[in-house]
């Protein structure tokens, strides 16, 4: 019997540059926490492999986020593997292809690769303890036109051994239409190549293609897609030709969620905080707002978002469908303010105009009103007193 862990898409070194202090509103950017989490989950996988006493850990591509990973990232990654002394097989994917001067060649030059780690940089069988043979299909470029798993059909392995394919790409006709379908893999490759199991990477969610073909998904979620990320697969093959048994193990720290909030009044904003409190603090939340917002609701929303940021790892807010409106009193005050009054009237006319200008005019009108409301009503100012 062969038993191993199947994992993929670690993307070590990913920087999460879009989750910075400016885009999330957090004073301290959450990106470093998410970067470290990718190292931490590898260490958890190593401990799990040790506890389960598996024959090997197979990593189906995109171990690193870039083929230009710096030396300190390479050394740190390999140090995370120390908890499991058994064999590791690491496959180059589209993010870290096996190029002559890429991360895998550099890792070898740095002498960073432990003796129990096999770099599957060639399409040749890898025999492991426990009568397990791995047939890897490494990528040598970010995008391959042909199916690099085709060689497995004719690969010769000992009859006593369990045949496991290891590949990174898109199974033809099985992933959503909006997925980048580079590096094609035949839907029936496991059957064609007489594989007992085909371990795949590239799709970041856990997905069964058939009983012998699985995507493990990334063990640490990294995007707002509800496709079952955060797992590593434990695979048992009782004997060559036998049907594999696949068990999922949850290993993720962070959850990436999306939530839509329609604002019709203060009660809708007040409902946001109980929802946020129901989430673990290790949540990265994308909040999509829609509805209408006047001046008083704008203040309430700002306070609610501040509290949410204090409770969650990261909060990304989409305001594109939120119509923010100044109060009638403030607009009337603006109309009486000389030059600003002319600008306000022009913007109000544009708000009633065509779709191309309407959204921009609404936003400009609110920004103008918001800044005007913050001006001091001092003697000699061109702004009239709010109490007049």
Short description:
The chain has helices spanning 21-24, 31-52, 71-79, 103-109, 189-192, 266-270, 272-277, 295-311, 328-335, 339-351, 355-373, and strands at 2-7, 56-59, 88-90, 117-119, 126-128, 132-137, 162-168, 170-171, 184-185, 197-201, 207-210, 213-215, 231-237, 245-250, 255-263, 283-293, 314-324. By secondary structure, it is α/β, with parallel strands linked by helices. The chain has a six-stranded mixed sheet, with helices on one face. A six-stranded mixed sheet has the order 5-6-7-10-12-11, with no helix packed on it. The protein has a three-stranded parallel sheet with strand order 15-16-17.
Q: Quickly name the level 1 CATH class of the largest domain.
A: Alpha Beta
> Strand fraction band?
15-25%
Which strand order does the major sheet show?
A: 4-3-2-1-13-14
Order of helices and strands: EHHEHEHEEEEEEHEEEEEEHHEHEHHH
Under CATH, the topology of the largest domain can be stated as Purple Acid Phosphatase, chain A, domain 2
Mean pLDDT value = 90
Which shape, going by the Cα principal axes?
Answer: elongated
Cα distance, first to last residue?
A: 86 Å
Biggest pleated-sheet summary:
6 strands, mixed
Number of helices: 11
Return the structural class. Answer: alpha/beta
Radius of gyration: 27 Å
Instruction: Supply the CATH superfamily name of the largest domain.
Output: Metallo-dependent phosphatases
- Give the helix level as a range of percent: 25-40%
Residue ranges: pLDDT <50 for 5 or more in a row? 378-388
